[in-house]
Write a structure and sequence with these properties.
This is ABC transporter ATP-binding protein. Keywords: ATP-binding, Nucleotide-binding, Transport. Belongs to the ABC transporter superfamily. The protein is of the alpha+beta class and about 350 residues long. It folds into two domains: about 5-230, Rossmann fold (3-Layer(aba) Sandwich), CATH 3.40.50; about 235-345, OB fold (Dihydrolipoamide Acetyltransferase, E2P). It is about 25% helix and about 35% strand. It has eight helices and 20 strands. The strands form four sheets. It has a six-stranded mixed beta sheet with strand order 6-7-8-3-9-10, with helices on both faces. The protein has a five-stranded antiparallel beta sheet with strand order 13-12-11-14-20. Helix 2 packs across helix 3 (about 105-120) and helix 2 (about 90-100) runs parallel beside helix 4 (about 135-150). The two termini are about 35 Å apart.
Length: about 350
């Protein structure tokens, strides 16, 4: 059982505590994405898992074995780096099989494993080439092949697609996920790209400033963010936010400058409570009876859809609507949203209400 468990992990560099009290359990064969902005601690946590950084405090278990003091080569993990880390003077075959050669695996066995990995990754025609003769996607496949032949219990990916163009990233996301499904290996994947997280993960661990903000499936963190920070980070375009007050004369209602929206009964907020209301751009529609009144600033066509940027009181708002809904800059616009599509957060704590 290739489980990974972090118990009250902390990391200190000099006098600076960059991570504190990280507790997380990763199940066997699970694909977990560590997501967050630069400097949040996700790569540090991955490097501690690999043994490339020491654990200052807490316990780290791989396959139920405490590995705090275990050498990286003895942890039965394989890591794929952002910069591929290929040997430029070695051909693809030798790059993939290098760790096996160091381990003095018989040459016939090395060839068998390298050819197996190359076939899965569509690298067979390139085994006699050098890394400089490959595209970025092919180099990343070579790095993945090198991890595969080790037959590790845990795969670690450190932002492996950040050097690729958008189309190739989308293709490689699919390949990595298919590889995971085929091999059934426990996978921990680090990225700052929420699209990678949403499309690849079984479970997302969203981090900020060395702490875990929320753990859940992609649907859970998107549909029920537990804080304003999570709601703002997940989703593109970002969620719209309005600061205002809840009124509860009969049906509860949110009121702010330029905004008056009915809320679902039993929403959990009290009359007079200061709250932050969040609405995803895709949940807004243009309607004459809409409770959000503003002025169009800009319309951006993004293919089948259009992003309408509007100024609502003191708030900047974005709505994603059909491209036929174009409005001229400076014209008035009314936006509507269904009560069950709004998210409420306490204005003081920024934690989810209800």
């Amino acid at each position: 059982m290739a489980t990974v468990e972090y118990k009250n992990i902390a990391k200190v560099f000099g006098n600076v505590e960059v991570m504190r009290d990280i507790s997380l359990s990763i199940a066997d064969r699970e694909f977990v994405v560590l997501l967050g902005p630069s400097g949040c601690g996700k790569t540090t946590l991955l490097r501690m898992t690999a043994g490339l950084e020491t654990v200052t405090k807490g316990d780290l278990f791989i396959a139920d074995k405490r590995v705090n003091d275990v050498h990286p080569r003895d942890r039965n993990i394989a890591m794929v780096f952002q910069n591929y880390a290929l040997y430029p003077t070695m051909k693809v075959f030798d790059n993939i099989g290098f760790s096996l050669e160091v381990a003095k695996v018989p040459k016939a066995e090395i060839r068998k494993k390298v050819e197996w990995a190359a076939e899965i990754l569509n690298l067979t025609p390139y085994l006699d080439r050098y890394p400089k003769e490959l595209s970025g996607g092919q180099r990343q496949r070579v790095a993945m092949g090198r991890a595969m032949v080790r037959e590790a219990e845990v795969f670690l990916f450190d932002e492996p697609l950040s050097n690729l163009d958008a189309k190739l990233r989308a293709h490689m996301r699919l390949e990595i996920r298919q590889l995971h499904n085929r091999l059934g290996t426990t996978t921990i994947y680090v990225t700052h790209d929420q699209i990678e997280a949403m499309t690849m993960a079984d479970k997302i661990v969203l981090m900020h400033a060395g702490k875990i903000m929320q753990i859940g499936t992609p649907d859970e963190v998107y549909e029920r963010p537990n804080s304003k920070y999570v709601a703002d980070f997940i989703g593109s375009p970002s969620m719209n936010f309005f600061e205002g007050t809840v009124e509860a004369a009969g049906v509860p209602r949110f009121v702010a400058e330029g905004v008056s929206i009915d809320l679902s009964p039993g929403v959990g907020a009290k009359a007079g409570q200061k709250v932050i209301l969040g609405v995803r751009p895709n949940d807004l529609g243009i309607s004459d009876a809409g409770g959000i009144k503003g002025e169009v600033v800009l319309c951006e066509t993004t293919g089948a859809d259009m992003q309408v940027h509007a100024r609502v009181g003191a708030f900047e708002t974005v709505a994603v609507v059909p491209r036929g809904e174009r409005r001229a800059p400076g014209s008035p616009v009314s936006l509507s949203v269904q009560p069950d599509k709004v998210h409420l957060f306490d204005a003081a704590t920024e934690q989810r209400i209800g």
